[in-house]
Specification:
heterodimer; A: 267 residues; mainly alpha; 0% strand; B: 302 residues; alpha/beta; Rossmann fold; Alpha-Beta Plaits; 4-stranded antiparallel sheet; 14 strands; 38% helix
């Protein structure tokens, strides 16, 4: 366990010396928090005005009433629906942030020739991978939680109707942020570590690792296009599926990370 | 301390190490010499459990390669071909990380000890990226020693260093030798090997020879004595050729180069014969071939 802590500390010391990485880690969560808050702020008046008359109950009906708790007007339900679209964007935070850190993790050590002395220590492959994985997952999860915390606080301050706030911060959001987010971060990190283990150029590692964001973006656009709506059940099912995906990815990562191959195929 | 038997490594079509059988005793400095691409680094990687052998066996510090890999890595120190430090981090931080990974009991104390020994204490807080190549190499040596390994693998420790830095590193290797550590030294620098090593092995995919530098000189070139005379001629050379213990005799200007099995025993007989024949002997000395001559002779004859 102490070796894992050492690896995490080493990774953070190296990564966060780079101000651009700090900017990357901080900027996206702030942006993805600001957008729904700005929407909430600008549309809170519309919920009692023109919007209420132009979109009476259509969306809520389409969704079988699963989005809106009782006590909210149709217009408020529309607002809840619109803000819910951003849940998938919030999922981009735990997927994209670790890519910046993990993609460089192995190939960076290859490039600076520090991997061989590191592998020459008594650290096991599992300890090394867990250390590198957690070093990328922890900042991603903390950023996601912080972004959601700011969003929740902002929503509470902006929206006067507390029933509306409760609907914006319901079980779906909590499952998504607290469970699916970290699981997605693990998936993203293990994928990036695998890529990082196989390529010889840090830029290639980062570009290829970005592929992991595609399913999340596809989910976002699918939801916006009305192909599905993330209700409580779907989010819970996604969480269960993610557990299986993560188990598979961790298994594959340990298989892909072969000390000998990494050392001898690197030029 | 290091024992290999028929150790072989094959990378697909490339045979990197072919049936290496070797013994390195405790406290010995063993020089592993060979041209680029000879398989020296691959051998070191196998012996430090970084990669596995294709065939054969090896034990290091009593642990079996391929079976006790973690124990081997805990028991040996490795200086890789390039320092491979974390350039953004301070020298002290670099060493602390590795001391923790080696589970050193007194991390702070050991880091300070080696930073002081290698003359880097005053620069301990500076990022390694600001260090010269020699300083980085010294830091890498410190890293290899933090856990006080009894066996050290040094891969080209003075490669690319300026003469002063090379001298410092060589001196320090000499100190480590005095401490009784077993050192496996891969080097291209044959003068370095000659000065530091108890035994050397010349390697090119397979081990060509291994012995002490002195024995190698003897076995490859024989022992030769040079007799400087005031005036030498073919008559004197002929007289020497008549002696049973004399091998080859060459006349080079006023010098006679004589091959002998044992100069310590036969030099007086030769001098007596030459003086008896009226020659003025000015100086007698043994012709010393460098290890480089031996190495080139062996590698070229392959």
């Amino acid at each position: 366990m102490s070796k894992i802590r050492t690896i995490i500390r080493k990774e953070w010391m190296e990564v966060f010396k780079n101000r651009l990485v700090i900017f990357t880690v901080a900027f996206l969560p702030l942006l993805l928090t600001a957008i729904p808050l700005v929407m909430l702020y600008t549309m809170r008046g519309a919920a009692t005005g023109a919007m209420a008359e132009s979109l009476p109950g259509e969306l809520a009906g389409q969704l079988g009433g699963s989005v809106c708790p009782s006590g909210l007007s149709d217009a408020e339900c529309n607002l809840v629906f619109l803000i819910s679209q951003f849940m998938m964007l919030f999922m981009l935070i735990p997927v994209s942030i670790p890519v910046t850190i993990a993609a460089y993790s192995i190939v960076g050590e290859k490039a600076t020739r520090s991997l061989e002395p590191l592998l020459a220590t008594p650290i096991t492959t599992l300890e090394l991978l867990v250390g590198k994985c957690l070093a990328a997952v922890i900042p991603a999860v903390l950023s996601t939680y912080a972004a959601y915390g700011i969003f929740a606080l902002g929503a509470w301050l902006i929206v006067a109707n507390k029933a509306l706030v409760a609907a914006l911060l319901d079980a779906r959001w909590l499952i998504a942020i607290l469970a699916v987010g970290p699981l997605m971060a693990v998936m993203s990190v293990t994928f990036s570590l695998m890529v990082s283990s196989r390529v010889n150029d840090p830029r290639v590692a980062e570009q290829v690792s970005m592929v992991i964001m595609l399913p999340v973006l596809a989910g976002f656009f699918g939801q916006v296009a009305g192909l599905f709506f993330l209700n409580e059940q779907i989010v819970a099912v996604v969480a269960v599926i993610m557990v299986a995906v993560d188990a598979l990815m961790v298994y594959l990562a340990t298989r892909v990370f072969q000390r000998e191959t990494i050392l001898t195929r690197w030029r | 301390m290091i024992h290999t038997e028929n150790l072989t490594k094959q990378f697909k079509q490339v045979l990197a190490v072919d049936g290496l059988s070797l013994d390195v005793k405790e406290g010995e400095v063993f020089g592993f010499l060979g041209p680029n691409g000879a398989g020296k680094t691959t051998t070191v990687r196998m012996l430090t459990s970084l990669i596995g052998p294709t065939r054969g066996t090896a034990t290091v510090a009593g642990f079996r390669v391929g079976r006790d890999d973690t124990a081997i890595r805990q028991s040996v120190g490795l200086l890789t071909e390039t320092p491979g430090m974390y350039d953004n981090l301070a020298a002290e931080t670099n060493l602390r990380i590795f001391a923790e990974l080696y589970e050193v009991a007194d991390v702070k104390g050991q880091v300070e000890k080696y930073l002081r020994i290698l003359g880097l204490w005053d620069r301990r807080g500076d990022p390694v990226g600001t260090f010269s190549k020699g300083m980085k190499q010294k830091l890498a040596i410190a890293r290899a020693l933090l856990h006080e390994p009894r066996i050290l693998f040094l891969d080209e420790p003075t490669a690319g260093l300026d003469p002063e830095a090379s001298h410092l590193v060589r001196e320090y290797i000499g100190d480590l030798r005095k401490e009784g550590r077993t050192i496996f030294l891969c080097t291209h620098n044959l003068d370095e090997a000659d000065r530091l090593c108890d035994r050397v092995g010349v390697f090119r995919t397979r081990l060509l020879v291994e012995d002490t530098p002195a024995n190698l000189r003897r076995s490859v070139f024989g022992r030769k004595v040079v007799l400087h005379l005031r005036a030498a001629d073919e008559t004197l050379a002929l007289r020497l050729r008549g002696l049973s213990f004399v091998g080859e005799v060459k006349l080079v200007e006023n010098k006679l180069v004589v091959t002998l099995d044992d100069p310590d025993v036969h030099n007086p007989d030769i001098v007596r014969l030459l003086v008896g024949a009226g020659a003025d002997v000015i100086y007698v000395g043994e012709l010393r071939h460098s290890l480089e001559d031996v190495y080139l002779q062996l590698v070229r004859s392959e």
